[in-house]
Amino acid sequence: MQGITVFDFDQSVTAQVEFLQRFRAKVTTKPLKQFQTKLRLWCSPSCFSKVSNEMEMPNKSQFALLGSSDYHHLTLALLQQHQTPFTLVLFDNRQNWMRPQHQYHSNTWICTASRLPNIERIVIVGLENGDLCAKKFNDSDAESYLGKKIILLPYSGVEIAVSMGKTQQIQSQLKQSLKAGVQEILDAIITTNVYVSVDKDCLRREDAITNWEQGTLPLETVTTCIEAINEQHTIIGADTVGDYSPPVFKSIFKWVDSFLDRSSSARRLQSGVRADTINSMANVKIAHALGFM
Questions:
Q1: Element at 238 (helix H, strand E)
Q2: CB within 8 A of 55, min separation 6: which ones?
């Protein structure tokens, strides 16, 4: 990969002194604070079009940092810049594929991504927030899962209702065997080219502090998976979200959406220097796994 780009919507990454100092020769920062509230959680097609133009990168082989998980739908703007077929490998506590489909929503953007012509498959690892459990599965993009366009690898076992009266237990092998779990991910990748996206809400609290409920994946497990992908495939781009910023909204509709979807513990969280320090180190380790030294 050629460089690191910080798309600075919420100042969550620009506060991470250690990360920025360590990679200062490789980092380009794009100030986009004017979009902060318009883009948080979701945005209109016209707003997405405007910010997509701002996010256009001459060199697509970048590790991009997008800020809070509230901006994960902007990964779509990066995915659309790649024209060759690729597999998207997503590490996330949420599958982000819920219906009804809103094209540019942080909780539904995978629905949109699964229909992009250049994406051959999406592999999602983590998935511990409960949105897959039982009948909740039917509120999601089950069509892409049943058609094997989306592969689900929950870190902890979950039972999904795949059809009327039929359930299925699914779980990644990562918790039982790191080696087997890594191979399971590699086996699910069906293209030479891979795009990697990491939402740090999949990580345990000692490895990252986000403004959403979190999973229990160790950071070392995620970086080991990325290193293995990097060894056997070509990573054409990567991004991460899950850096901490307070979920502040101007829109009452977004405030209600956030209140209903965000856990009470995540809503109560007040963070600051500690989050910046912990998340900075997480970003350093993810960058190392991608090949930045």
A1: strand 234-241
A2: 7, 30, 74, 77, 78
- In angstroms, the CA 249 to CA 257 distance is 10
In terms of pTM, does the model score above 0.85?
yes
Q: Which two tokens stand for residue 68?
A: 């809070």
* Rounded CA separation 7/34 (Å): 12
Report whether 70 contacts 78 (CB < 8 A): no
The pair of structure tokens assigned to 252 is: 């009452």
For the chain, how are helix, strand and coil distributed in percent, rounded to 5? 35, 25, 40
Residue pair 83/118 in contact by the 8 Å Cβ criterion: yes
Burial of 186 (0-12, 13-18, 19+ CB in 10 A): middle
Query: Which domains are present in the chain?
Result: 3-289 (3.40.800.10)
Q: Kindly report, residue by residue over 32-78, the tens digit of the pLDDT.
A: 999 999 999 889 999 999 999 999 999 999 999 999 999 999 999 99
Average pLDDT over residues 236-242: 98
